[in-house]
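Format notes (please read before filing issues)

Several people have asked whether sequences and structure tokens are stored in separate files. They are not. Every record keeps both together, in the order shown below: the sequence lines, then the token lines. Line labels are part of the format and must not be stripped during preprocessing.
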Amino acid sequence: MKYEEALKELEQIVSRMENNEVGIDEMTTQLKRAKQLIKLCRDRLTKTDEEIKKML
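Then the structure lines:
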């Protein structure tokens, strides 16, 4: 999954939660998915930062 796709999905989850569109039964699943997406984004940013530092 690309960084942009992960970020978009994460934004959708947050938006649905802010608008009370997520039921209590789905909340745990959505929070777990959000946690996975945050980790993916953080890892990609860290890797990109390291690669840029190597090039400079």
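For reference, the curators noted about this record: The CA atoms of residues 12 and 34 lie 10 Å apart. The radius of gyration is 14 Å.
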